Amino acid sequence: MSGEDRSPDTAPEGAAPDETPDLPDETPDLYGAFPRLTDQQIAFLSGHGTRRSVAAGEAVIREGDRGTDFLVVLSGTIAITEQHGTPDERVLRVHGPGRFPGELALLQGQAAFFAAHVREAGEVLAVPVDRLRVLVARVCRGSSPPVMCAAARSSG
């Protein structure tokens, strides 16, 4: 199961309720399945990753690949698709600033279930997955593990 498919009660602990108005092309977060990180969480992750510009159409996750970076959308939008580049391509959802695609599969070392392409040019924060595993394990130590904690521990 990818992070994109998690149930509403498995949203990462401490993620902000989606109180910001949805972007016109962003998938609404009606059930808490697509949490938006707080400015404080993004600032923390920024100390462990790299900001980079992304161009419209750029593939940031390829279906079937094992990712090396956890991505947080800082500006612009990213579309999650299945069967990308085929006549059956379908946009499943669109994420805007503060959201992140596919973290659970990434933490577990699984291949990506879906593709992600930049829909609107902007900037992402890329945190190496190995570094993220260490951070998640450290943050989750001694707590009842939410999904990201359990994933970090199982990939060990």
Instruction: Give the % helix.
Output: 10-25%
The radius of gyration computed from the alpha-carbon positions, rounded to a whole number of angstroms, is 14 Å
Q: What portion of the residues fall into strands of 2 or more residues?
A: 25-35%
Text of the CATH class: Mainly Beta
Distance between the termini: 18 Å
Count of spatially separate domains = 1
H/E topology pattern: HEEEEHEHH
Major β-sheet profile? 5 strands, antiparallel
Question: How many helices?
Answer: 4
Strand count: 5
State the shape.
Answer: globular
Structural class: alpha+beta
Average of pLDDT: 77
CATH architecture annotation name: Sandwich
The CATH topology annotation reads as: Jelly Rolls
Stretches where pLDDT is under 50 for at least 5 consecutive residues are 1-22, 150-156
CATH homologous superfamily descriptor: Jelly Rolls
Question: Could you provide a short overview of the structure?
Answer:
This protein is of the alpha+beta class. Helix content is 22%, strand content 27%. It is built from four helices and five strands; from the N terminus they run αββββαβαα.
Please give the structural blueprint:
Blueprint: H1 39-46, E1 50-54, E2 59-61, E3 69-82, E4 90-95, H2 103-107, E5 115-128, H3 129-140, H4 147-155
Antiparallel strand pairs: 1-5, 2-5, 3-4, 3-5
Helix pairs in contact: 3-4
